Amino acid sequence: MNKNELVNNISEKTGLTKKDVESVINGVLDEVTNALKQNDKVQFVGFGTFETRERSSRTGRNPQTGETINIPASTVPAFRAGNKLKEAVK
């Protein structure tokens, strides 16, 4: 499912306009992104938690040349599913 399909489905279920639903979805995504930029967690009880994780530096290989390269440490977004979501997917 892509974003347009999600907007259409929510619009049909709620009776809201597609424009209103898209505004809400964009607002939620912006707030989650802003929270993660500040290393905050965003938790939806039962659904899951969005958070950031630190990846340490590591050694990798260039697949074309086989040359060893250093991959620097970075911060990456992560999602941990909640119990209700896990049960729903089983």
TrEMBL record:
<comment type="similarity">
    <text>Belongs to the bacterial histone-like protein family.</text>
</comment>
<dbReference type="Pfam" id="PF00216">
    <property type="entry name" value="Bac_DNA_binding"/>
</dbReference>
<protein>
    <submittedName>
        <fullName>DNA-binding protein HU-beta</fullName>
    </submittedName>
</protein>
<keyword id="KW-0238">DNA-binding</keyword>
<dbReference type="GO" id="GO:0042802">
    <property type="term" value="F:identical protein binding"/>
</dbReference>
<dbReference type="GO" id="GO:0030527">
    <property type="term" value="F:structural constituent of chromatin"/>
</dbReference>
<dbReference type="GO" id="GO:0006270">
    <property type="term" value="P:DNA replication initiation"/>
</dbReference>
<dbReference type="InterPro" id="IPR010992">
    <property type="entry name" value="IHF-like_DNA-bd_dom_sf"/>
</dbReference>
<dbReference type="GO" id="GO:1990103">
    <property type="term" value="C:DnaA-HU complex"/>
</dbReference>
<dbReference type="GO" id="GO:0030261">
    <property type="term" value="P:chromosome condensation"/>
</dbReference>
<dbReference type="InterPro" id="IPR020816">
    <property type="entry name" value="Histone-like_DNA-bd_CS"/>
</dbReference>
<dbReference type="GO" id="GO:1990178">
    <property type="term" value="C:HU-DNA complex"/>
</dbReference>
<dbReference type="GO" id="GO:0005829">
    <property type="term" value="C:cytosol"/>
</dbReference>
<keyword id="KW-0226">DNA condensation</keyword>
<dbReference type="GO" id="GO:0010467">
    <property type="term" value="P:gene expression"/>
</dbReference>
<dbReference type="GO" id="GO:0003677">
    <property type="term" value="F:DNA binding"/>
</dbReference>
<dbReference type="InterPro" id="IPR000119">
    <property type="entry name" value="Hist_DNA-bd"/>
</dbReference>
